[in-house]
Amino acid sequence: MKKRGFLIVLEGIDGTGKSSQAAHLKKWLEDCGHKVVASREPTDGPWGKKLRESAMLGRMTAEEELDYFLKDRKQHVDELIEPSLAAGKIVILDRYYFSTMAYQGARGFDPLEIRRRNEEFAPRPDLLVILDLPVEDAHQRIGVRGDATNEFEKREALQTCREIFLSLRNEPFAVVIDSHSSCDEVAEKITEAVRYFLGNVRN
Question: pTM score > 0.85 for this model?
Fold first, then answer.
């Protein structure tokens, strides 16, 4: 019987380097001989595209946004995440339902209720990597890379998001990594965590 795969999620506020670290981690795992699938949320599916458009063209209501995130994630789980895990692959996600807890929590929803609704259909990760950075530093990084600071990235909302992410630090599958360090140093800390958790799950 094929072993079930391993789900790794990278989370954190904007500017912490999740996308770069997800790409680095995928290459490292493939170099180690693993079959890896990397994805992100919102996805490029129909619901995810509408969410991305709303971030650029005018944010939808909080209720609509949460509904679209749930629909996008359900499709993601059904069509990619669960089949990949069932095939024994390692799945790396750049954002997952913890981002919905954080960002929609900042819009007034109960993060724990959001988590409950998601975990009715979305598998919990085997490893949740929370890349942490103070909001001021994150804003400086966003400015350096040339992105316009949109409504998602307003300081007060980001501070709330950061606090929600950090509230997950005591979960047995979670690791908080300070992303102040260089990309290489952060990558090494992530690979150390992956080695540890992957070894414990698969042994």
Answer: yes
